[in-house]
């Protein structure tokens, strides 16, 4: 059963990336197939929330808030075990930083306009977490492991104040200057509701190992992000109820036989 479900994970993940360019389509696909992927050892659902990101070695930078959305699988590694593998795809995942110092754009008019302004560095990724999770009897859990990402967009938004606050802006595409693959470490803590059939609530912290820029001559900047998230299972509640009803039926049958 596990092998079939793992194949299904890959199929749905591929469909989401190739055929679903926006987050709404990915949610629809998850809702359609979610109840087919849940079992006693595998939980499937939607994963999303808010993250607060920043960049290391970025002078005068401020935290930048963003949204993340995707789907997840919690795979029990052994029957009756407290150890799980949490994985999936964060198909919408924003990182970067705000309040960066402006740099020269080699355009006298633009350089003059934004020299006293700031830069909002917007980095978009598709991320794959691979977290080893341990769940305690009180439904608290801790988790840690690597997260890998593929950059899909990178933009520096220059802004300045002319008449009103930040009323002037210019977008500079920096995708070609960036490393398109990202690797880092993630750790977190959370709580599982309703004895296995409810959602997970938690926080995770990610620290990137990869310089976002290709040019080693530039100061190394690495992604850091704090995630506040909710994981909502799809179809798990119905399967749990069916399993409970089946167990009660078997108990009743044994009593009749006796």
What topology does this entry show?
Layout: H1 2-19, H2 23-37, E1 42-55, E2 64-76, E3 83-100, H3 108-114, E4 118-135, E5 140-160, E6 168-173, E7 181-192, E8 200-208, E9 223-233, H4 236-257
Antiparallel strand pairs: 1-2, 1-9, 2-3, 3-4, 4-5, 5-6, 5-7, 7-8, 8-9
Helix pairs in contact: 1-2
Q: In words, what does this structure look like?
A:
With 258 residues, the chain is of the alpha+beta class. It has one domain: Beta Barrel (Porin). Helices cover 24% and strands 47% of the residues. The chain contains four helices and nine strands; from the N terminus they run H-H-E-E-E-H-E-E-E-E-E-E-H. The protein has helices at 2-19, 23-37, 108-114, 236-257; strands spanning 42-55, 64-76, 83-100, 118-135, 140-160, 168-173, 181-192, 200-208, 223-233. The chain has an eight-stranded antiparallel β-barrel with strand order 1-2-3-4-5-7-8-9. The longest helix has 22 residues, at 236-257.
Which labels suit this protein?
alpha+beta, 47% strand, single chain, 258 residues, 4 helices, eight-stranded antiparallel beta barrel, Porin
The Rg value, from CA coordinates, equals 22 Å
Please state how the strands of the largest beta sheet are arranged side by side.
1-2-3-4-5-7-8-9
Q: Low-confidence runs (pLDDT<50, min 5 residues)?
A: 17-21
User: Could you report the average pLDDT, rounded to the nearest whole number?
Assistant: 82
Number of helices: 4
Through-space gap between termini: 33 Å
What's the β-strand tally? 9
The level 1 CATH classification is Mainly Beta
Helical residue percent?
Answer: 10-25%
Shape: elongated
Order of helices and strands: HHEEEHEEEEEEH
CATH topology: Porin
How is the biggest beta sheet arranged?
Answer: 8 strands, antiparallel, barrel
SSE-based structural type: alpha+beta
How many domains? 1
Beta-strand portion reads over 45%
- The CATH architecture would be Beta Barrel
């Amino acid at each position: 059963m596990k092998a079939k479900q793992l194949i299904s994970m890959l199929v749905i993940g591929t469909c989401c990336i190739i055929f679903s360019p926006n987050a709404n389509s990915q949610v629809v696909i998850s809702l359609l197939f979610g109840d087919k992927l849940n079992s006693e050892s595998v939980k499937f659902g939607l994963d999303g929330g808010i993250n607060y990101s920043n960049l290391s070695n970025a002078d005068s930078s401020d935290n930048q808030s963003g949204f993340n959305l995707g789907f997840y699988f919690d795979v029990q590694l052994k029957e009756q075990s407290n150890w799980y593998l949490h994985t999936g795809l964060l198909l919408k995942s924003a990182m970067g930083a705000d309040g960066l110092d402006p740099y020269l754009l080699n355009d006298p008019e633009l350089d003059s306009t934004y020299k006293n302004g700031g830069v909002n560095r917007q980095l978009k990724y598709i991320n794959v977490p691979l977290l080893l999770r341990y769940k305690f009897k009180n439904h608290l859990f801790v988790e840690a492991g690597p997260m890998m990402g593929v950059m899909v967009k990178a933009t520096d938004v220059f802004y300045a104040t002319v008449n009103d606050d930040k009323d002037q802006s210019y977008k500079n595409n920096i995708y070609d200057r960036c490393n398109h693959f990202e690797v880092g470490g993630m750790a977190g803590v959370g709580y599982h509701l309703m004895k296995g059939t409810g959602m997970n609530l938690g926080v995770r912290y990610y620290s990137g190992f990869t310089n976002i820029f290709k040019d080693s001559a530039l100061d190394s900047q690495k992604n850091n992000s704090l995630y506040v998230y909710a994981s909502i299972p799809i179809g798990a509640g119905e399967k749990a109820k069916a399993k409970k009803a089946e167990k009660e039926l078997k108990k009743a049958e044994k009593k009749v036989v006796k």
